[in-house]
Design a protein that fits this description.
The complex is a heterodimer. By secondary structure, chain A is mainly α. Chain A has 13 helices and 4 strands. In chain A, helix 2 crosses helix 11, helix 3 packs antiparallel against helix 4 and helix 7 crosses helix 8. Chain B folds into 3 domains: 251 residues, P-loop containing nucleotide triphosphate hydrolases (Rossmann fold); 143 residues, P-loop containing nucleotide triphosphate hydrolases (Rossmann fold, 3-Layer(aba) Sandwich), CATH 3.40.50.300; 78 residues, no CATH class. Chain B has a 6-stranded mixed beta sheet with strand order 6-9-10-3-11-12, with helices on both faces. In chain B, strand 1 and strand 2 form a beta hairpin. The chains are: A mainly alpha, B alpha/beta. The interface between A and B is medium-sized, with 23 and 23 residues.
Chain lengths: 313, 507
């Protein structure tokens, strides 16, 4: 779908829900919306990279959970009752390392073996979920209330803007530049468009593919830290189904499952559309069962537009 | 001896041997290419041409023998290494990313960058300059996505890409198979210019007339060995063909359509006023036992016509009748049931199930016969496969062999042969001899003649105009999606048809 059309959809949804829900179009409600979108948007950014090269990463939801438990596990070692910047840094590093490691495994399996990414990441999804459940006998691990710096990552505000939104926009800018302004990004489109062409032009397929999955893992790690901070605890069951929401955001935003097509901006709008739907339907007191139906139909419509656009070319 | 010929050789192969498992693809091949010459490489598919190219391109590493470039012995271990040596390959299967623009494809793999960021403006400017310098004005709009270009224009993009860096050796694998006459002329003009710049060109083609025109020397490969080399200019075509296929071929034999039948037969395929995005009001009719050739330049709508008639592409107006019964538009299943079959142009993409066996592909249309009520009848399936293999003399060790292991000619035979268990009433063949070697091509032409003798109505689409004129009873001329005339093939001259197609009709 063209970006203009996507923005029209956003505008239409906002108008629709301002009519059906009370106090929908207020500044505070919109900031709240942005905050709720941020985790899914961050996951969707990484997912867009994977889908553009013709891959997929189903493990992001489970990686999000294992990163959360790892981070809080490290953070709550030692018995101090005040915060310690070194330990905070260590815990976040540990979390992101685990995330990158999962990405690396995904990437190496997908790039160096003939295993399809769908199956590889299905496997690592289960492994990550199992590891998350191991930490505290499947019970949530609380974040101590004195870890104010960590908690601020998810719940703090800077100049009135929630921290998760700032992180999300920062990642949007960085990954947008990476995808649209560098050779690396250009090569991803070539790989997704025609793998053989990319191979014959000497583009290092395997290396690019590994980097993409590591990026995907890292976005899951960042999303994991944010959502843990927002919840004040690491929930081993967190992130279930998040991978599907991320795929939905990317696809609604115009990323094509055949590979080679998609933009960061499109994915951001896709995440916004999914977020508005969730929040708007909720505030309009639509029963949650119908929320699923509506979201499903929106995804079908988006893919239909994509396919129809390609047929007519 | 090798020393003497190697003094001014740009590329010299000495005793190059390559095995794949138990198969010997190249067996002690000596070959040399001088700067500023076009050296044509001839041979049937499977003769070892592709392996030889791939060794120069760094895709394969030879098991034995030496590769010298510019007088120095080198090891070409990777695509990047070959590229650094100035070796450029244009593959037969185009290798462009369809979702990217012309400029992006030209710079693929080495995009101009400033501080690590892509410099899109320079990319477009460089591409425009390059395209202009090469005289490829057809692709001057470098911001167009490649999927919007015709196949021949995509080929020009490939050539532009190959020449966008200093090229010492240019390898072209059947570059003209998708090109029309004027486009071939343009390509040859470009090649001549490169020859003046002392680029060495290895040129692979099955078309002897082209090789007559462009080649300085011709080397024939068969079964992985060099059979012989002739100097260009005064080639002995008969000898070249004999070298290639290892026996005498009767070239003259292929020069007439099936006897008799012609226009007297009853109309089998009627197309009336067919229009869609690419076609304007096209009508024709083909009788039993008749071959209707379709001639047109690239982009005239030949394949589009086939796809619309068969029901792949949508149709805005018009109708198609098979034996008088109207068949619904955009419904290939109904077309096949009515007795109309299309053998598509792009074998890999539209024809074969590439990952499966030869047998799988041959038995595919007839599952209802060998697998009624979910009870597969292996014997019946085996019969269907065996009959097709025998009738088409498909060269395959076993029906279990992967269909991709076959040569282009044999793949084509699979695509046609799969329908002959119950022959259709009308058959549309889109480029049945593209990328097919001499032997299989003769077989294919003989098959077309025998099918028409049996009463089939055949529509033959080919960019090889002389082939169309030789095989058809009548020829439908297409220009820009319109049928500009139907003429008897007998007595029609190449020049006259070409003038009609290009629209430069002299008074």
């Amino acid at each position: 779908m063209k970006l203009g059309k996507l923005l029209l959809v956003v505008a239409a949804l906002l108008i629709l829900f301002s009519l059906t829900a009370r106090n929908f179009l207020t500044a505070e409600n919109m900031l709240d919306l942005a905050e709720q979108i941020s985790v899914n948007a961050i996951l969707a950014f990484g997912m867009t990279f994977a889908i553009i090269i013709g891959g997929i990463d189903l493990s992001v939801g489970a990686v999000l959970a294992v990163v959360g438990t790892t981070t809080v596990f490290v953070l709550s070692r030692g018995n101090s009752t005040s915060q310690d910047p070194a330990r905070l840094a260590l815990s976040i590093t540990a979390g992101l390392t685990v995330a990158a490691a999962f990405g690396l495994v995904n990437g190496l399996c997908a790039a160096k073996t003939a295993m399809p990414a769908f199956i590889v990441t299905l496997g690592t999804m289960l492994v990550a979920r199992g590891m998350a459940l191991r930490y505290n006998e499947a019970r949530p691990i609380q974040v101590a209330t004195h870890e104010t710096a960590f908690l601020a990552l998810g719940s703090g505000r800077v100049c009135g803007v929630p921290c998760p939104v700032i992180i999300m926009l920062g990642l949007f800018a960085v990954m947008g530049v990476l995808l649209h302004r560098t050779r690396f990004g250009q090569h991803l489109y070539a790989i997704g468009g025609n793998r053989e062409a990319a191979r014959f032009t000497g583009i290092p397929l395997a290396r690019h593919e590994v980097v993409v999955y590591v990026l995907c893992g890292l976005t899951a790690g960042i999303a994991g830290i944010i959502s843990t901070s927002r919840l004040y605890m690491a929930e081993p069951g967190a992130g279930e189904g998040f991978e599907l929401n991320a795929i939905a955001a990317a696809v609604v935003g115009g990323t094509s499952f055949t590979g080679g097509v998609g933009t960061m901006f499109g994915t951001l709008i896709g995440a916004i559309i999914i977020g508005i739907l969730d929040k708007g339907l909720n505030q309009s007191r639509v029963h949650f069962s119908w929320q699923y139906v509506v979201k499903g139909l929106v995804i079908l419509a988006a893919v239909y537009m994509d396919v129809r656009g390609r047929e007519r070319r | 001896m090798a020393q003497a010929s190697g003094v001014d050789a740009l590329v010299r192969l000495v005793g190059v041997t390559k095995h794949f498992g138990g198969v010997t693809a190249l067996d002690g091949v000596d070959f040399d290419l001088r700067a500023g010459e076009v050296h044509a490489l001839l041979g049937e598919n499977g003769a070892g041409k592709s392996t030889l190219i791939r060794i120069l391109a760094g895709v394969h590493v030879p098991d034995a023998g030496q590769v010298h470039i510019g007088g120095a012995r080198v090891q070409v271990r990777s695509v990047a290494a070959a590229s650094a040596l100035g070796i450029r390959v244009i593959h037969q299967e185009l290798s462009l990313a369809p979702n990217l623009t012309v400029a992006e494809n030209i710079h693929l793999g080495r995009e101009p960058a400033r501080c690590g960021f892509i410099d899109r403006r320079r990319m477009a400017e460089d591409a425009r300059t390059l395209v202009h310098d090469l005289g490829l004005d057809e692709i001057a709009d470098v911001r167009r996505p490649v999927h919007r270009l015709s196949i021949s224009h995509r080929q020009l993009v490939e050539i532009a890409r190959a020449l966008s860096r200093e090229a010492r050796v240019l390898i072209l694998d059947e570059p003209t198979s998708a090109l029309s006459g004027p486009e071939t002329d343009a390509l040859f003009a470009t090649l001549s210019r490169l020859r003046e710049r002392a680029v060495g060109i290895i040129y692979i083609s099955h078309r002897l007339e082209e090789i007559q025109r462009i080649a300085d020397r011709v080397t024939v490969l068969r079964d992985g060995r060099v059979i012989g080399t002739q100097a260009g200019g005064h080639l002995d075509e008969r000898e070249l063909v004999r070298w290639m296929i290892g026996r005498d071929a009767n070239l003259a034999d292929a020069s007439s359509p099936a006897e008799g039948v012609a226009s007297a037969g009853t109309p089998v395929l009627d197309v009336m006023g067919l229009s869609n995005v690419r076609l304007r009001d096209v009508s024709f009719s083909v009788s039993a036992g008749e071959v209707l050739g379709v001639a047109g330049l690239v982009g005239a709508g030949r394949s589009e016509l086939a796809r619309a008639v068969f029901g792949i592409d949508p149709v805005d107006a018009g109708e198609v009748r098979v034996c008088g019964h109207r068949i619904p538009a955009r419904n290939p299943v109904a077309s096949i049931r009515a007795g109309l079959v299309l053998v598509p142009e792009d074998r890999q993409r539209d024809g074969l199930v590439p990952r499966n066996s030869v047998g799988f592909n041959l038995a595919l249309p007839w599952t209802r016969e060998w697998n009624p009520d979910f009870r597969p009848n292996g014997r019946r399936r085996g019969e269907i496969i065996r009959r097709a293999v025998e009738r088409l003399s498909i060269r395959v060790a076993s029906p279990h062999a992967s269909v991709l292991s076959l040569s282009g000619g044999n793949q084509q035979k699979v695509l046609v042969g799969r329908w002959l268990e119950h022959p259709p009433k009308a058959l549309i063949l889109d480029e049945p001899t593209r990328g097919v070697d001499v032997g299989a091509r003769e077989d294919m032409l003989a098959l077309i003649r025998s099918l028409t003798t049996e009463g089939m109505a055949v529509v033959l689409i080919s960019s090889d105009l002389s082939e169309v004129l030789r095989l058809s009873h009548r020829v439908l001329l297409l220009r820009e999606g319109r049928a500009i005339g139907i003429m008897p093939a007998e007595g029609a001259s190449l020049e006259h048809v070409m003038a009609e197609l290009t629209g430069v009709t002299s008074p």
